[in-house]
Amino acid sequence: MIALQNLSKKWIAIGLVVALAVVAVLTWLGPVEKVLGENLRLVLLHGAWVWAGKIAFALSGLAGLLYLAFRRPWQHDASQALAHTGLVFWLTYLPMSVLIQQINWGGIAWQEPRFRIPLAFGVAAVLLQIAVGLFNTHWLTALVNLVFASALWVALRGAENFLHPNSPVFGGNSVRIQSHFLLLLAAALVVGMLLTVLLFPARKTTSQPEIK
User: Fold this and answer.
1) Which residues, 6+ apart, have CB-to-CB distance to 25 below 8 Å?
2) How many other CB atoms sit within 10 Å of the CB of residue 116?
3) Which among 1, 19, 172, 207 would be 20 to 30 A from 182, CA to CA?
């Protein structure tokens, strides 16, 4: 992360565009299957995207916990950059989810917990990030990110499935589909890493203590 920060924002942005292009190519070259056909490609991207968002939020919460314990400014900055990265994934994953429901189910299943819960957390994430930005208090931001990430993981772990399969990728026995999903997830995580570095604020070295 530190080495990437030493690169100019321009090169990081170029790397981000390249990583997104890799995601697009991997999606286009994705496998098909009898039931979903080519729609499986978008389903795999949707799965990788939401997992990248969940991981970004989890790391944001971890960085927030570290800030609450050690009060290092970079820990707060990492927590915020990761929270914003997670939010970008989440707000792009939700329309993708709507599209997949329309294609595969013929409409939006508002009662589906695997859609209703992420939608509620997406709205909450936007409102919370606006609030912590207005308060601009580091310990509060770190605490909010920690609580949000914990609540998100607990809520999704305990969510029931109505139409959504329990494990759409690893519930089957197709090694090709599982391998392609892992490739997409790895590419999505690279996108997340570069986006986080791009969002990471530059700080000047100072000897003054952190007071926020």
Assistant:
1) none
2) 14
3) 1
Single pTM value for the model: 0.91
Residue carrying structure tokens 């993981």 = 153
Of 81, 83, 80, the C-alpha closest to 91 is 83
Distances in whole angstroms, Cα of residue 50 to Cα of each of 4, 107, 123, 132: 24, 20, 15, 23
Q: What is the pLDDT of residue 165?
A: 64
Query: Residue ranges per domain, the chain?
Result: 2-199
| Number of other residues whose CB lies within 10 A of the CB of residue 159 | 15
Least confident among 24-33, 50-59, 161-170 = 161-170
